[in-house]
Amino acid sequence: MEGKVTVYRCHRFGSVHVRCPSNSHLVTCCCLQDVVFARQKRQLAAILTQGSMADVPRDLLEQISQLETIFTVSPEKLRQITDHFVSELAKGLTKEGGDIPMNPTWILGWPTGKESGCYLALDMGGTNLRVVKVTLDGDRGFDVMQSKYHMPPNIKVGKQEELWEYIAECLGKFLADNYPEALDAHERGRDVDRTAAQSFTRDKSPPPHNQHISCSPGFDIHKIPLGFTFSYPCSQPAVNRGVLQRWTKGFDIEGVEGEDVVPMLEAALERKNIPISITALINDTTGTMVASNYHDPQIKLGNIFGTGVNAAYYEKVKDIPKLKGLIPDSIDPETPMAVNCEYGAFDNEHKVLPRTKWDIIIDEESPRPGQQTFEKMSAGYYLGELLRLVLLDLYKDGFVFENQGKNGQELGNGNINKSYFFDTSFLSLIEEDPWENLTDVEILFKEKLGINTTEPERKLIRRLAELIGTRSARISACGVAAICKKAGYKEAHAGADGSVFNKYPGFKERGAQALNEIFEWNLPNPKDHPIKIVPAEDGSGVGAALCAALTIKRVKQGLPVGVKPGVKYDI
User: Fold this and answer.
1) Which residue of 34, 79, 175, 441 is 20 to 30 Å from 158, comparing CA positions?
2) Are both 239 and 128 inside the same structural domain?
């Protein structure tokens, strides 16, 4: 179990934040502008060298035209999708519910930007565990120290005790490697708060005794506070509680679904005598929003555009009907609460999204048919499979890869027949090919698939990748627009993270254009758009730490962070 330590800082230059290694000179704003300008020049050069369709045979041109008709989402369709999205968001907040779960998180109130102190964060991903120490500087900046630990595949399908013991072991190793004095003080029975320059933020005195403390169970203010990013569907009766609804991301561990995961992990920590208390359990999307708002108060929602899709935003407590009768009296009805939308399930009823026959195949052959319709049409996990299915149909109909794989022979090396062999990076490479004859695409298909391609075929492939990538970005923008309409935001920043948003060529620009069409701004320059999708901060690290800070603040004030005592919570 090795953990590679990384340190970085987020510094403040007026309204601009710059992330750099902690031992480097600070990057100036003009340097950032040069980097952005250089990137834009490269993108433009790539577009200009793509070549024309003049040498493409008529039969392929007809196929390209048909694909454009199938995959293009018109401005009118975008607005129709968005309007239905708004109504489904509202429906999800009711007791009756709908396709979109709209899970209350019990993260109450926005960060002020003045939060300060040191907190631990734990991010339990599908491949790695990440342990993070976040130091908030009280002026919308922060320092981060983090270590990553590999998640052994056998643990993901093993016994629940093995999972929690391993996580506790990683947390203990992080403290032992970086803050051994905290462990030593705990073992000697001293208050951890007095160790080594007070490395972590705690309150020495318990919160005032009143009727609401029972709403905040399990807090141990003499231990190190930890924000736990647990991005699996959960029902949360309190901010530091989470009943797992179902495993995702390749996990299949018995004895956890239907149970509260927090006591399980805390029991493992207790057995190893590690002085950590789980203060907040969050989803990465909620963390993305909170972390991003900490350094940019214009950010009003958080989005994930990656392998999956999701969003979070704040809704006033009074406007969450499903919580009626569950909210403690001391919570002001105007208090904003973060809502984890889980909106990948939008339009499971198939009313507005323009599904193609290939989308239907992906859904029907998925582990959960009929679920996560929006995600299956927009998320990175499915884009490569969509390209593969379309190309196979074109091949079977005799339009591409002529004289290959005939007479019972396999097409190429057979990889094109493997479900999900194409990942999103496959499409990215196709779209980024800067050569007029698409040499990179030629090499990609030859090396990965064993398929020879002609230049006209490569131009069709390139156009198909563009259509799939563009549809993803445009549909994704509908979720952003719907939340802004639902919340009444006329101007806002949407903090976005995820591999597709960060790495897929043109995704940001296509999303911005879709917002321009949905809201009918008629503003060609995205810089002028009232609502912008911008890069987010580290949601699973910094965001989790901030959620822990917000929770501790409420607990110290004797304010509740969960449902009324004694009421049944079945949301």
Assistant:
1) 175
2) yes
